[in-house]
Amino acid sequence: MSRIRVMLAEDHETVRQGLKLLIDGQPDMKVIGEAGDGHATVADAMSLRPDVIVLDISMPQMNGLAAAKALKDAASTSAIVALTRYRDEAYVQEMFAAGAYAYVLKQSASTELLRAIRAAGKRERYIDASMRETDRQAVEVRRRRWEQQSRVTPRETDVLRRMALGESNKEIAAALNIAVKTVEVHKANGMRKLGLTGRMDVIRFAVLQGWLKDL
After folding, report:
1. Apex CA 199: angle with CA 196 and CA 203, to 5°?
2. 204, 94 Cβ separation under 8 angstroms
3. What structural domains and CATH numbers belong to the chain?
4. Has residue 28 got a pLDDT over 80?
5. Could you tell me which of 182, 187, 178, 184 has the C-alpha nearest to residue 157?
6. Which residue in 35, 51, 171, 179 has its CB near the most CB atoms, within 10 A?
7. Which residue in 60, 7, 71 sits closest to 38, CA to CA?
């Protein structure tokens, strides 16, 4: 039986070594490469062509989402397993949209990661057991949220980006030459479409999108 060739993309060396011991201890998988930042992940992945990349979302130089998008744009054949402590809906949506096959929480049991790697190796979707929604109504809510995300307008995006950068409604209104009430409407509509419920959600989403990279 051929083994799943895995690459680890994680900036903490101790965590990487723990993951390596776990994965190399499985009879059907082995670690063939490691990377400590986003840029190295993309370069090494294109060179090594692993079957699966275990990708941390929070990494220096280029975060995991940006790396996933870069690999997708480069037509990488590697399947991505997102490994993170974030269970926010926005992160899940963005990683799957960027081409990830699986999403696993760091705080979950190690068996979750192993199941995700095996699923991704077969190009099957997998999401952490603690995040699965079995209620049909909840699944429908998620489906509608995904549809709404594609409908965020450029103006709503600009308002949310400025909000994440710390600008007040009055400052945003002045910069965009619109009324404060209009800013509030754009902000509310954009947050609703993206499933964001507060300023911290907007900031986390902004980090994923690279809106704060110049700060």
Report:
1. 85
2. no
3. 4-131 (3.40.50.2300), 136-209 (1.10.10.10)
4. yes
5. 187
6. 35
7. 60
**Ramachandran angles phi, psi of 147, nearest 5°:** -65, -40
138-147: which pairs have CB atoms within 8 A and are 24 or more residues apart?
142/89, 145/89, 145/93, 145/193, 145/194, 145/195, 146/93
DSSP 56: E
Contact present, 49 and 78 (Cβ < 8 Å):
yes
What span, in angstroms and rounded, lies between the C-alpha atoms of 103 and 126?
Answer: 6
Question: 11 with 38: CB under 8 angstroms?
Answer: no
Q: Is the pLDDT of residue 143 over 50?
A: yes
Q: Give SS3 for 53.
A: strand
Query: Distance (Å, rounded) from C-alpha 151 to C-alpha 85?
Result: 28
How many CB atoms neighbour CB 22 within 10 A? 16
Q: What is the pTM of this model?
A: 0.66
Q: Which residues sit opposite 54 in a β-bridge?
A: 8, 81
Spatial distance between the Cα atoms of 55 and 65, rounded to a whole number of angstroms:
9
Q: Which of 86, 94, 89 is nearest to 138 (CA)?
A: 89
Q: Which residue has the tokens 């190690």?
A: 110
Cβ of 167: how many Cβ atoms within 10 Å?
Answer: 16
